[in-house]
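Loading example: each entry is read as two labelled lines plus one structure line.
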Amino acid sequence: MSDRLEVLKTYKTYVGGKFPRSESNRIYRIENPGGKHIANACRCTRKDVRDAVVVARSAFDGWSGRSAYNRGQILYRIAEMLEGRKDQFVNELELLGAKKKNAQKEIEISIDRLIYYAGWTDKISQVFGTVNPVASSHFNFSMPEPTGVVGIIGPDESPLLSIVSLVAPVIACGNSCIILASTENPLSAVSFGEVLHASDVPAGVVNILTGNRDEMVNHLTTHMDVNAIFNAINDSETKKQLDENASISVKRVKHYSQSDWSEEKHENPYLILDFMETKTTWHPVGA
Amino acid sequence: MNKVSLPDFNQTIPIDQIGVEERVARLNSRSIKKESKVQGLKLALSMIDLTTLEGKDSEGKVIQLCSKAKKPYAPMPDLPTVAAVCVYPNMVSTAKKALNGSNINVASVATAFPSGMAKLQVKLDDTKFAVEQGADEVDMVISRGEFLKGNFSFVFDEIAAVKEACGDAHLKVILETGELETYENVRKASDIAMHAGADFIKTSTGKVSPAATQPVTLVMLEAIRDFYRETGKMIGMKPAGGIRKAKQALQYLVLVKETLGADWLTPDYFRFGASSLANDLLMQIVKQETGVYQSSNYFSND
């Protein structure tokens, strides 16, 4: 059997609850650190970004309108499904050159992190909402609400854990998102899409694009229909460009580049709050 | 026109369904970019019949629609206005007043729109009322039930009568192609409408699915071409319903150019019946100007 030609998987994108190829039909080679060709991934274009934003926008109302309790259930479900497919992710990370022990650890932390954020979905507005003392006869209260469509720019390190750490706080409070996966390490992100697909996450809430990040990042960050950017790339040029792009429609920008994604500090409700807007209501009451 | 004898409507002109669909598919693959795209988008904007035909329409809604018609996007005052505003007869006077001083026409649906299920006299009164209120254009529906029964002379006479009731107003005849079942029927209904005096033929009311499709439009455009060759009279075309995206609009313009030529590429001979198309065209125009993808949040809804 040694002369059998191995079939290399082409990892497709995850957009709108489906797994389409890039509209360009282009793919590129994914190699492990030793330079061995291990798989192919789609090379997405600005048009894929455009289509993904449309999908994410239309998914936003439904997702943010779900009860917080239900969003928690769904996040918990993602963790359950990930637990069930642990072996696949370990193999994939090993293929990319990770040690088995480290790969296992990365997946376990990913699962626990999802459960952590699942717990926060119905507590975030209790903890960060306030009743404000005012001098007139009004009942005055402030509640955090999801900001809308969030563009996530994934780093090259810890390909699964970093994506989980970036996505979980964003979707926990009801945002929808578009992820630009790492150019070199997109495989775990796409496989994570397969997990999301099997976890009751409504179509379009999480959309994952692969390809040459530099070809897409400007189109995503200038897009007027994107409300916030969650950037994990530590490159001063890129960050400056993102800030300038975001200023066009006054997007929220959170730069969040990390060297160690396994640290506990990434489990933090303030990361949820970074993608929420505070709405204050003045409700008249009888004097 | 008088010299031309009426064709025998009991004869059917065969339509090559596969051929029509393949031709549409091939024309759709044509790529229009940069400068020509911007021109096309602006042309499409100038061809829109901005439409509101809902039971819940109010004066306020119509006035708002009219201000959108006059000034599609305030930050770009040089944009063309739309061609017309299309409303129900009882909203015509409101629209007429709101559009005073502009070149925008008021179109009114009439003849028991959208079903057309009423007596001829009711339809004529409906038409006359719309024209009295000041409608520049009348959109009538044909009796599809009679047409499908094979009662072609009934349909012909009805259109001719409504045309007479219109007076100076332009008459657009809605075939409601979604109910005509076959391309042969679409072709036949087009021929009947044109011979009976239509100034425009229009695909749909927008109340029946499928509404306008490109193959149906191509069949109607070919009917217009053949009618022009026979009589020398230019008839306009209006696809309506289901055209929401700028890209579709450009594809329609290509169909018109390739079937009838550039003479038809003006609001006098080609219209889009649409409401949400206007915003998508605007968003694409602004995208071409700024290079940045737009959000519907920044464009007025009506």
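Chain A touches chain B through ten residues (CB under 8 Å).
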